[in-house]
Amino acid sequence: MEGITVEQAVELILEHTPVICETEEAGLLETPGRILAEDMKAAFDNPPFDRSPIDGYACRAEDVAGASKENPVRLKVTEEIDAGQYSVRKVKPGEAVRIMTGAAIPQGCDCCIRQEDTDYGEETVEIYRPEKKRGNYCFAGEDFKKGTVLLEKGTRLGYVEAAILAGMGADRVKVYRKPRAVLLTSGDEVVEPGRELTQGKIYNSNLTLLTARMMDFGVCPVYTVTVGDDAAVMADQLQKAAKDADVIITTGGVSVGKKDIMHESLRMIGAERIFWRVQMKPGMPTLFSVYQGVPIVSLSGNPFGVAVTMELLIRPLLQKMMQDDTLGLVRVKGIMADTFEKSARGRRFIRAIWENGVFHLPDGLHSNGILSSMVGCNCLIDRKSGLGPLQTGCEAEAILL
Amino acid sequence: MEGITVEQAVELILEHTPVICETEEAGLLETPGRILAEDMKAAFDNPPFDRSPIDGYACRAEDVAGASKENPVRLKVTEEIDAGQYSVRKVKPGEAVRIMTGAAIPQGCDCCIRQEDTDYGEETVEIYRPEKKRGNYCFAGEDFKKGTVLLEKGTRLGYVEAAILAGMGADRVKVYRKPRAVLLTSGDEVVEPGRELTQGKIYNSNLTLLTARMMDFGVCPVYTVTVGDDAAVMADQLQKAAKDADVIITTGGVSVGKKDIMHESLRMIGAERIFWRVQMKPGMPTLFSVYQGVPIVSLSGNPFGVAVTMELLIRPLLQKMMQDDTLGLVRVKGIMADTFEKSARGRRFIRAIWENGVFHLPDGLHSNGILSSMVGCNCLIDRKSGLGPLQTGCEAEAILL
Predict the structure, then answer these.
(1) Interchain pair A84, B206: CB under 8 A
(2) Does A86 lie at the interface with B, CB-CB under 8 angstroms?
(3) Which residues of B touch A375 (CB under 8 A)?
């Protein structure tokens, strides 16, 4: 099989992939999926005050030491403090305050008594049981302390982190900006969905495949164009895209035929070819170039090839560019429940369903041009080169989609 | 522990949860994450024509039966067919056409010869090896046949399905509409992030927690309101929300204190109480009602309680309402790497990190009011009631976040 290994290809791609260090501000609800670009340090203790975890009475443990149902302790109720309220009056011996869950415990008190353990008194209250010092008592700073770094730069934010940011009072945070990706699909034979399919044409599924998968990875392409098999037009598009994009992905035109325009287009703009051809099926004719610092990944036009190279080559690129390790490929092992007949010499990636440690093959053809049999598949079996057919019962390894 | 079991609570919630059957049209790139509301049947064979998988020459296998490098067969090249082109001229014995990958194989031909196995001739071509009938030949309908249901009603669409729809020529499809959710958080003590934090107040993290998690589940709340501890105002909001919403979620005010307004608000509007209190920690005082057919889930105000009930009670509700089984809870088993000390009688859900079959507990407090220690956690250990502390080395079960 011609070309470099998949691992070499990834290494070369990463070598030419810049990390995006520019930042932008994101509102709280825009943060999930983003990478934090600054340490987030607490500006105050949280909770900001000692607070009651119950509905009841705040008082001094000393005063209620001997309390029981038979011998209740009677305290004078000086005020009521609800959640959201705050009292500056210090509670003295023999006194209590009515207090609600989440309310600030006033000075002088060192415990709270559950209302079920009292007579619910308003002017005075009878306490039916003792409480230890700091019993039913939440300390200021119990959640986090002023100055503590709660979320570190580089953290991938999710719903919990967004809520923590909210709890810190932050309504906007600095995150790394997302990559600007441009997708260029090519081919005289493709027609966009929704238009009429004329003789000799097929519908363009690659553009949707690439765009939707990029969106799974958190990247919404800045624009997408479908170009005919014309090297000069493609060259123009590449030049235009390179002005604005962090990464350019093209499909089609990378093989050896007369219509394989990508080689010519890239020569025309003077892009540096880093590699062409990778030892993998599908996706063998993948071509990687750099133009004005922008990585250009050129995939073959076969839809299944696009799906496979997206995972194996573009996902690692985005992982580095976005500093998002959740994009890292996850490998799993399992036993073949079916036999994969095709026995080419080279390395092959095979669509499959991985369930409870077992690999099932989908019905339908495995050809590179066929996508329909990929429905329901959740992995790509990595059949290393030199192996024969994958027999039922043998062990295999796959990357999860 | 008071209340019904989590399982009973889920059952009651589902009993009162309608499935959304109304549909809407979605453009291709809006389909990922949506549920298909119609069978998608192929309107044509794909590929729509027999096509060449290679760059080379299409001809008749019979004509090249004896071909070799030493004794090449010479054929007359009658035309060139590129991808996207189509010829109606039938190829006769002794003839060949130059053909490119993806181009329609013309009538009369039954195989294609790779250009590497020819002299690349233009007027005539020398063929250096034989090819079997249907060799290098892709049949029309190989991907899918006209009339085949490629995607069934009820399928959850992803990037592959979107690409298959594109390949079918569909630019819009019918999907079920998303739930309209209204979130109402309550509490005199909460201040929205970005505002000044005054004495006795805390920032509202629940609204962000709920909204961001709903968005993970594919639901963008139609609106959210934060209400003070005023039963009449909350009642108004509930009535207003019920006009428009499929589901209402509230936080706070469900306990037994004077400020626990939800009971009163729901009474005021005449909502039917289905249950109050669930045997779980956190989230015990969860209250579930139905008003004008709209399920209202009222959660306690503790952020960790909100996070837990969101998974255990609201996620199943959304799963049913949206017919989206990817929202189903996934349970995993593992061994405790740390000891969880607290030993209450009741069932408890404990934030943890599950990795390689082992549960690790995060640093920091596990209190219900504390969210910061949830960073990095990917599961909730389900410590069933009646068990003591979870010791290092013992087996535990968890639901994945």
Answers:
(1) no
(2) yes
(3) 150-151, 155, 160-161, 164
- The tokens describing A380, both together, are 């790509």
Residue B371 to residue A164, Cβ atoms within 8 A: yes
Choose among B10, B25, B111: nearest CA to B313.
B10
| Helix (H/G/I), strand (E/B), else coil: B216 | helix
- Residue in A closest to B164 by C-alpha: A372
Whether B396 has its CB under 8 Å from any CB of chain A: the answer is: no
Contact at CB, B29 and A211, closer than 8 angstroms? yes
Q: Which of A120, A149, A203 to mutate to test the interface with B (most CBs of B within 10 A)?
A: A203
The rounded distance, in Å, linking the Cα atoms of A150 and A42 is 7
Q: DSSP readout, B147-210? A: T-EEE-TTPBP-HHHHHHHHHTT-SEEEEEPPP-EEEEEE-TTEE-TTS---TT-EE--HHHHH
Q: Which residues of A touch B163 (CB under 8 A)?
A: 205-206, 208-209, 212, 303, 307, 371
Whether B115 contacts chain A with CB within 8 A:
yes
pLDDT tens for chain B, 401 residues: list them.
679 999 999 999 999 999 999 999 999 999 999 999 999 999 999 999 999 988 999 999 999 999 999 999 999 999 999 988 889 999 999 999 999 988 999 999 999 999 999 999 999 999 999 999 999 999 999 889 999 999 999 999 999 999 999 999 999 999 999 999 999 999 899 999 999 999 999 999 999 999 999 999 999 999 999 999 999 999 999 999 999 999 999 999 998 877 889 999 999 999 999 999 999 999 999 999 999 999 999 999 999 999 999 999 999 999 999 999 999 999 999 999 999 987 667 899 999 999 999 999 998 888 888 899 999 999 999 998 877 788 999 999 999 99
Instruction: Give the nearest partner residue to A212 out of B29, B211, B259, using CB atoms.
Output: B29
Q: Is A143 on the interface with B (CB under 8 A)?
A: yes
- Closest alpha carbon to A331 in A375, A380, A284, A282: A380
Q: Cβ contacts of residue A105 below 8 Å, gap of 6+?
A: A49, A50, A51, A52, A58, A99, A112, A137
Other C-beta atoms closer than 10 Å to the C-beta of B307 total 29
Closest to A176 (Cα-Cα) out of A17, A14, A18, A20: A20
Cβ–Cβ contact A335 with B under 8 A:
no
- Angle, CA of A188, A192 and A198, to the nearest 5°: 65
Under 8 Å between Cβ of A224 and A207: yes
Question: Do residues B308 and B27 lie in contact, with contact meaning Cβ atoms separated by under 8 Å?
Answer: no
List own/partner pairs for A350-357 with CB under 8 A and 24 or more apart: A350/A380, A350/A381, A350/A383, A350/A390, A351/A304, A351/A377, A351/A379, A351/A380, A351/A381, A352/A377, A352/A378, A352/A379, A352/A380, A352/A381, A352/A398, A353/A377, A353/A378, A353/A379, A354/A378, A354/A379, A354/A398, A354/A400, A357/A333
The pTM for the full model equals 0.94
- Contact flag B188-A83 (C-beta cutoff 8 Å): yes
From the list A32, A163, A187, the residue facing B84 with the nearest CB is A187
Task: Tell me which amino acid residue A69 is.
Answer: K
Report the residue from A82, A200, A256 with minimal CB separation from B86.
A200
Question: Is the minimum CB–CB distance between A115 and chain B shorter than 8 Å?
Answer: yes
Contact yes or no for A62/A81 (Cβ under 8 A): no
- Report the residue from B46, B85, B369 with minimal CB separation from A200: B85
